[in-house]
Amino acid sequence: MSRITIYHNPACGTSRNTLGLIRNSGAEPEVIEYLKTPPNKVRLQELLIAMGISARDLLRQKGTPYEELNLGDPKWTDDELMDFMVQHPGLMNRPVVVTPLGTRLCRPSELVLDILPNPQKGAFTKEDGEAVINAEGQRV
Question: CATH number of the domain that 32 lies in?
Answer without folding.
Answer: 3.40.30.10
